[in-house]
Design brief:
- The chain is an alpha/beta fold.
- It is built from twelve helices and 14 strands.
- The strands form three sheets. A seven-stranded mixed sheet has the order 1-9-8-5-4-2-3, sandwiched between helices. Strands 10-12-14-13 form a four-stranded antiparallel sheet. A three-stranded antiparallel sheet has the order 7-6-11, with no helix packed on it.
- Strand 2, helix 4 and strand 3 form a beta-alpha-beta unit.
- Helix 9 crosses helix 12.
- The longest helix is centred in the last third of the chain and has 21 residues.
- The chain is globular and about 60 Å long.
Length: 363
């Protein structure tokens, strides 16, 4: 089929507004010396973000990966600790605690919405466990309240990797705000995007202070050796404009997501469309259905089989992190999963019908 029109939420007019930024009137950064706060636009974005997501603190960073690293640093992750992570997520989720010296402990996912299985998480907690990092995959909440209760009962941190699930909800609470810390992404292929960028949110003033130390060289002298993980003023300007259009952007992604499910069912494809769990709202980052039999490795563009290989298959993870490993649901899901990146393309209804028809012809 012909190439789909790329979906890009920053159009020419808006980019023009950004490039007309008054460089001579305002500094391009407020991070001078030990000042833990950015320039006027970074501070404005943090205030708007905190208000929008009903949290006490929001810390702007230069990527969600930086946000995950800062969150792990704020949680005190270090050598000798264990951090429980899903094997079915982007590699940065596991890379950040590993860079800090922690041992990665893999917990399996649940089959319905691909989040961490709370039962397996409970079974994997030891006296060395420092944190659990849960990914709200494809735009659907994991079992966040249940995982938060588990972490609270063991005195460990719950960090949400909420890069794909902005404005998703569980029990009418926004994802990213249920864990002790939540990390949002503004990467180019997310629902709201500024090219690069991220935000970390929390409700705790001590965590806010530690997050700012982590992303600003540790110059608040609070005990963290920090890095330069800071957001620029230009990125902040774009993020503020993106937030203004969030409702329309998510509505358009939801329409595509639901149209694909309806068309898959109408054409009778042997694929179970994604399920939205009770008391949850899906933010439609990607459409992920489970085929009744493993699909061929090569699917017609723009479909793909699976998401990522289970991360424990990467050579970067040690034999100790793979010893006795059992994540059967992850491997079964990846073999049967059929994926369309809702946030990457802007198909018309006719194109959706053609996409689904071509998919069905190869199953």
């Amino acid at each position: 089929m012909k190439k789909l029109k790329k979906f890009l939420t920053i159009d020419g007019a808006e980019w023009g507004a950004v490039t007309n930024f008054a460089f001579s009137d305002e500094p391009l950064s407020g991070y001078i010396g030990s000042n833990p706060h950015g320039g006027v636009n970074v501070r404005r974005l943090e205030a708007i973000w905190a208000d929008t997501f009903d949290v006490s603190y929001a810390v702007a960073v230069n990527s969600a990966t930086s946000g995950l690293l800062a969150a792990c640093m704020a949680a005190g992750v270090t050598h000798g600790d264990e951090v429980i992570v899903s094997p079915y997520t982007m590699s940065a989720t596991a890379a950040c605690p590993k860079i800090l010296g922690a041992k990665i402990v893999w917990a399996d996912i649940e089959r319905e919405n691909f989040g961490l299985d709370p039962v397996d998480v409970s079974n994997k907690i030891t006296r060395k466990t420092r944190a659990v990092i849960v990914t709200n995959l494809f735009g659907h909440p994991a079992h966040l309240h249940e995982l938060r209760d588990i972490c609270n009962s063991h005195g460990i941190w719950l960090i949400e990797d909420n890069a794909q699930a902005i404005f998703a909800r569980e029990r009418n609470i926004l994802c990213g705000t249920i864990g002790h810390m939540g990390v949002f992404s503004l990467n180019i292929h997310k629902q709201l995007q500024t090219g690069e960028g991220g935000i970390v949110v929390c409700h705790d003033g001590i965590l806010d202070k530690k997050l700012r130390e982590a992303m600003n060289h540790g110059e608040m002298r609070g005990g963290i050796i920090g890095l330069n993980l800071r957001m620029t003023e230009i990125t902040a300007v774009m993020a503020i404009e993106q937030l203004k259009k969030a409702e329309d952007i998510l509505k358009s992604r939801s329409q595509i997501w639901h149209s694909i499910s309806e068309e898959v069912e109408r054409q009778g494809l042997p694929i179970a469309p994604p399920i939205i769990r009770n008391e949850c709202y899906h933010s439609c980052y990607a459409w992920a259905g489970i085929a009744s039999a493993p699909p061929p490795e090569k699917l017609p563009w723009p479909w793909r089989k699976g998401y990522v290989k289970p991360l424990y298959m990467l050579p970067a993870f040690s034999s100790a992190e793979k010893a006795g490993l059992s994540c059967p649901v992850t491997e079964q899901v990846n073999e049967a999963l059929v994926l369309f990146e809702v946030c990457a393309y802007d198909p018309t209804n006719d194109e959706i019908k053609q996409m689904v028809r071509e998919l069905g012809e190869c199953l």
